[in-house]
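Checklist before submission:
- one chain only
- standard amino acids only
- sequence pasted in full

Submission:
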Amino acid sequence: MAAAHLELRHCAAPLLSFPPLPPPPSSNPSLLLPLRRRAPSLPPLRLILRRSSLSAAAFIPSSAAASDPDKLLEVPSSLPLEPTLPPSLLSNEVAVDEQKKKGSQLRKRVIFGLGIGFGAGGAVLAGGWVFTLLIAAAVLAAAREYFELVRSRGISEGMTPPPRYVSRVCSVICALMPILTLYFGHIDVSVTSSTFLVAIALILQRGNPRFAQLSSAVFGLFYCGYLPCFWVKLRCGLAAPALNTKLAHCWPVVLGGPAHWTVGLVATFISISSIIAADTFAFLGGKAFGSTPLTNISPKKTLEGAFAGLTGCIIVTVLLAKVLCWPTSLISATAFGVLNFVGSLFGDLIESMIKRDAGVKDSGSLIPGHGGILDRVDSYVFTGALCYSFVKIALPLFGV
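Returned file contents:
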């Protein structure tokens, strides 16, 4: 290809001169363009463009430039000014970036998941105010995320969300409910009183009160405040010692001795462990064998993954029941595992339904790699109430 001349006008800074470059080897051809400015005192510049998609038709040949040096070079606007890579190389780079991003995301999930697991396990063992304050902190964060979802554009279309000050008051009330449950031993009075106060605040507000405001606020009190309180009732309310648990006999006296291992502690530990097993087995089974969608609410969940989660939940529940000698019956242990799985599955689906209507993927970004706190505790919201009812009502029917 013949050399071409390109004139530069209106240069804001003086041009630097570069020494002449040796001609490129024949194996790696380059396009050599001598550039010069109108000022006769400055030497010409040389610019080498490699692997460019520029065509020779875009330049004026050197013979034409020599005959008419004042003639300017016109470059078409559609001409790519930067070197472009083949589509195959671009797709490979995108794939590598996606792989690195997924690896980093998985690393964050594992690290923060282990941190949350060890912290929650220590709080479950401690019980009392330590466990209750942890529940209250999680409830406060989950309630704030819930009311932000309700106030989002996706849900608020066609309805009137509660005012922001009502949402904040409801979040504080939800956080106080576990503490009141531990202190008074029951929760019915606090829930009823809180609902009545919120209804009065909504009715007396300025403007035109709407039923949608009341329904979303009351459901927030029930979903984020009332239901998590059953974990406090389960862990701290069932104070009967687990006499058959062999681990209790070797428990240090400094940490409470054998009396520290109560029915509430054993039931809470087995329930939380089985929920973790259900989520893990469902994820692995769905990734390996999942092909049949479970529901339109959450497209990633599959029927095969749900079956794997149910199997893992039952296996872990039965094994822990054998180790901790509670419940003593195989049928009751299996039923306890099935109940934990049902509560965790539908708790996850209900939170997915709320996020779908809100038009978001995660409820928040509080936990790196996991999303919001509501994304992490959705499987536990209904399970505490189901487990407490199972221990108080169903187990006596099995003679436990």
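Reviewer check: The first helix runs from residue 62 to 67.
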